[in-house]
């Protein structure tokens, strides 16, 4: 956008006056933020309108996702509009601190973790690539909970992110649609078979649109977030209509509950009815709007799949399959076969995890009661699918039962998604291979052409340009500004990897961020950390498979060594943790308490000369990650191999020059292939080794406990009063390893991890060598750009004719 500093200042001051009726000097940071965001909203509105007009003709992609973990938007809008430098300069002249203003923005946390953040990255990439791709999600009244620590324990506080309003949303009440729950359906044969749906609960889905601005182009796409609202219920309660009145209140509460909270866990099944309601609400509302838009564009329904691609992000929106069938058949009078081929041609599905608890299933009775017409359709899909299977595997009932959509009283959403879509993809080569060969091997045999891999990618714009502007500028000076459009231009850094002058500039930037982070940590936790120590960061959801305990056990071991030998030659290290535990996941919550207790013990111990420090930062979210990325030397990516489908934190850290210590899992493997074995530190069991152990029913952790003194010491310290806290407080962790089989193979990988940590320190001591590793990581990060991934989705899956020609990327190799 073209606007000079003086003009911007004029418009900004004008906005301040109109909004607040007082001079700039008297406004608070919050008020200044309001004025800035309101001005940005004005700028975007006009561009949005023009972009919509231009997009009317082309094929549109709709990315349906139950989560969009957006993070703060203002700075991203400024970057994408090309206004960031102008605005920074204008504020500097006005004596206003832009960074402080930007901190006033709420961080919209409408997602749990990787899956939701990936969805947000892809919106950014689609707009940057000028692809007409839009998000469809839910406008949760309360986002992902805020995490507080009280005595080292996690307390969940509701995230009231809408309390002061969300300036970037545009309510479109005229485009509200009706969603029906419950009731009865009766077949009627009147020439054609029809279903009469009665006595249902009717809910209004009201869209709130959030603009998604493309980077330095004129594309503005839409993220549509649906909010559940009751129909008008305005009657006066009186003594005579008390019952009606109570019913009305109940109805209103029921409806509002649908979009009131984001489930703080993407893998458990609590609140099942409400969860299923959310899924249907999202899919039905989105599909109704998509078909209405098609009608507005005068496109006949028979051409649906030429003009629309619907992508389902994991199985949460898999009801799109039967719902699209319902709309085509019931509302538009289409026959089954035609509706089915259009549905399959329109929908595509990404699987994000093989964790069994996340592969959704619904009990038939619950499903049928809530969605009676959809159930009839799913039943028919299942019958027809089983007939097809019978043709292929006549008489093989076990095989057919294993693949059926409905079996043993449950509806399997992944099976529905695979049968009802034309493309199924995993999110890293290893993950796709595991899907094809193990978890979904029956389906892969049956539909070999549906399966494909799309290795995840993330946006350099948020996680490098926004998070680390100094590094972004250095990269621009070194390889040319074009790297922003073509992240693979970062390969041009390779000749500088061993150049001391370049390395020193990179080191100075990292050092600056480390001191800034150290000051913030001191402020937030009271713990003083040394900016010259190794910053070793482990941030992500707290989960058994992500193995925060492995990291903690190594820290305990290091501490034990230091206690035994205080003079030990050790490069000072600061271990930084961050992450939330699902409120109902007791062991994960206890892990937080355990690490906080360990931190307390170590940080207070004066005898170890500050050689190690441990901090667990509260309320890990996108904004906190952006502060950690530029200050991190070592990134911990240590899941049990095969469990982390891809991971995306790994990509965000390498683009900032952190070096990964990690297992051979998901995206780590592809990062290793890109950066080369010498520029990443890998260790531990491979995925195949892990899967073989699981197939054998596990292993005996006592062998390791008894055979490795280091492991025994550390585990005993959980239960012998070594840590602050109650005597048996950490026993469940101890038991999970020794009495419940160490399911995530922490003890099994412990020795390899300790060795890998030693190797890491050895390499860090050679400063030049370490910096060259760091440069090589940045150089190869272009391959992990979401722009690359989305170009692949656009070409291979959605068969999209983009507005602009598809650009060429160094692509991640297909499996
Ligand atoms: C999942 C997986 C991650 C993956 C992410 C995005 O567990 O490994 O990187 O989706 O594909 N639930 C998740 O976060």
TrEMBL record:
Its EC number is 2.4.1.1. Keywords: Carbohydrate metabolism, Glycosyltransferase, Pyridoxal phosphate, Transferase. Coiled coil: none annotated. The keyword Transferase applies. SUPFAM superfamilies: UDP-Glycosyltransferase/glycogen phosphorylase. Allosteric enzyme that catalyzes the rate-limiting step in glycogen catabolism, the phosphorolytic cleavage of glycogen to produce glucose-1-phosphate, and plays a central role in maintaining cellular and organismal glucose homeostasis. This is Alpha-1,4 glucan phosphorylase.
């Amino acid at each position: 956008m073209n606007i000079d500093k003086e003009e911007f200042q004029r418009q900004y001051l004008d906005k301040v006056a109109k909004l607040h009726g007082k001079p700039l000097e008297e406004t608070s940071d919050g008020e200044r933020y309001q004025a800035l965001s309101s001005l940005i909203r004005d700028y975007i509105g006009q561009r949005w309108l023009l972009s919509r007009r231009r997009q009317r003709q082309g094929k549109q992609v709709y990315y349906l996702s139950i989560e969009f973990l957006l993070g703060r938007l203002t700075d991203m809008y400024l970057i994408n509009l090309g206004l960031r430098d102008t605005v920074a300069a204008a504020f500097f002249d006005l004596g206003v601190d832009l960074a402080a203003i930007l901190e006033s923005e709420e961080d919209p946390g409408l997602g749990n973790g990787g899956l939701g953040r990936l969805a947000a990255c892809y919106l950014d990439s689609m707009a940057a690539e000028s692809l007409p791709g839009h998000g469809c999600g839910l406008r949760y009244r309360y986002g992902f909970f805020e995490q507080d620590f009280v005595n080292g324990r996690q307390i969940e506080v509701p995230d009231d992110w809408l309390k002061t309003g969300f300036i970037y949303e545009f309510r479109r009440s005229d485009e509200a649609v009706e969603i029906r729950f419950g009731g009865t359906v009766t077949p009627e044969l009147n020439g054609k078979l029809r279903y009469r749906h009665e006595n249902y609960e009717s809910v209004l889905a009201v869209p709130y649109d959030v603009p998604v601005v493309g980077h330095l182009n004129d594309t503005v796409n839409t993220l549509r977030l649906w909010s559940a609202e009751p129909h008008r219920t305005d009657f006066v309660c009186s003594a005579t209509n008390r019952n009606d009145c109570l019913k009305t209140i109940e109805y209103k509460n029921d409806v509002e509950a649908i979009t009131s909270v984001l489930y703080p866990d993407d893998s458990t099944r609590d609140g099942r009815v409400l969860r299923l309601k959310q899924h249907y609400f999202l899919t039905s509302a989105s599909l109704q709007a998509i078909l209405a838009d098609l009608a507005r564009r005068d496109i006949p329904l028979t051409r649906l799949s030429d003009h629309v691609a619907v992508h389902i992000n994991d199985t949460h929106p898999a009801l799109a399959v039967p719902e699209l069938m319902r709309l085509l058949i019931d509302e538009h009078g289409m026959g089954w076969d035609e509706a089915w081929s259009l549905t399959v041609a329109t929908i595509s599905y990404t699987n994000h995890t093989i964790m069994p608890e996340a592969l959704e299933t619904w009990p038939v009775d619950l499903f049928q009661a809530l969605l009676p017409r959809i159930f009839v359709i799913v039943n028919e899909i299942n019958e027809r699918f089983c007939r097809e299977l019978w043709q292929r595997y006549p008489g093989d009932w076990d095989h057919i039962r294993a693949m059926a959509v409905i079996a043993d009283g449950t509806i399997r959403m992944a099976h529905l998604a695979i049968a009802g879509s034309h493309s199924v993809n995993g999110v890293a080569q290893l993950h796709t291979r595991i899907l094809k060969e193990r978890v979904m091997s029956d389906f892969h045999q049956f539909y070999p052409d549906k399966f494909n891999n799309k290795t995840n990618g993330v946006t350099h714009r948020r996680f490098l340009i926004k998070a680390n502007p100094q590094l972004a500028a250095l990269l621009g000076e070194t390889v040319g500004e074009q790297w922003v459009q073509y992240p693979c231009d970062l390969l041009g850094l390779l000749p500088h990897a061993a150049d001391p002058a370049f390395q020193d500039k990179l080191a100075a930037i990292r050092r600056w961020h480390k001191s800034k982070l150290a000051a913030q940590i001191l402020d937030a936790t009271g713990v003083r950390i040394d900016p010259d120590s190794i910053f070793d960061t482990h941030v992500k959801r707290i989960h058994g498979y992500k193995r925060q305990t492995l990291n903690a056990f190594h820290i305990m071991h290091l501490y034990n060594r230091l206690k035994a030998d205080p003079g030990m030659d050790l490069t000072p290290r600061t271990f930084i943790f961050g992450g939330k535990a699902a409120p109902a996941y007791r062991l994960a919550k206890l892990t937080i308490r355990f690490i906080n207790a360990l931190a307390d013990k170590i940080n207070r111990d004066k005898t170890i000369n500050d050689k190690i420090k441990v901090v667990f930062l509260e309320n890990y979210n996108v904004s906190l990650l952006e502060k950690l990325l530029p200050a991190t030397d070592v990134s911990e990516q240590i899941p049990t191999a095969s469990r982390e489908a891809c991971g995306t934190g790994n990509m965000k850290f390498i683009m900032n020059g952190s070096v990964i210590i990690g297992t051979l899992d998901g995206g780590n493997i592809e990062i290793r292939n890109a950066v080369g074995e010498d520029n990443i530190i890998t260790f531990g069991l491979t995925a195949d080794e892990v899967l073989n152990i699981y197939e054998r029913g596990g292993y005996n952790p006592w062998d390791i406990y008894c055979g490795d003194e280091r492991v025994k010491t550390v585990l005993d310290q959980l239960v012998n009063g070594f840590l602050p806290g109650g005597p048996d407080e950490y026993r469940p962790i101890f038991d999970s390893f020794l009495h419940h089989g160490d399911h995530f193979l922490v003890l099994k990988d412990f020795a390899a991890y300790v060795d890998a940590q030693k190797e890491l320190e050895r390499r860090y001591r050679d400063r030049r060598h370490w910096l060259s590793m760091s440069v090589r990581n940045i150089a190869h990060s272009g391959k992990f750009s979401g722009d690359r991934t989305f170009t692949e989705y656009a070409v291979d899956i959605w068969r999209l004719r983009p507005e602009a020609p598809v650009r060429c990327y160094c692509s991640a190799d297909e499996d």
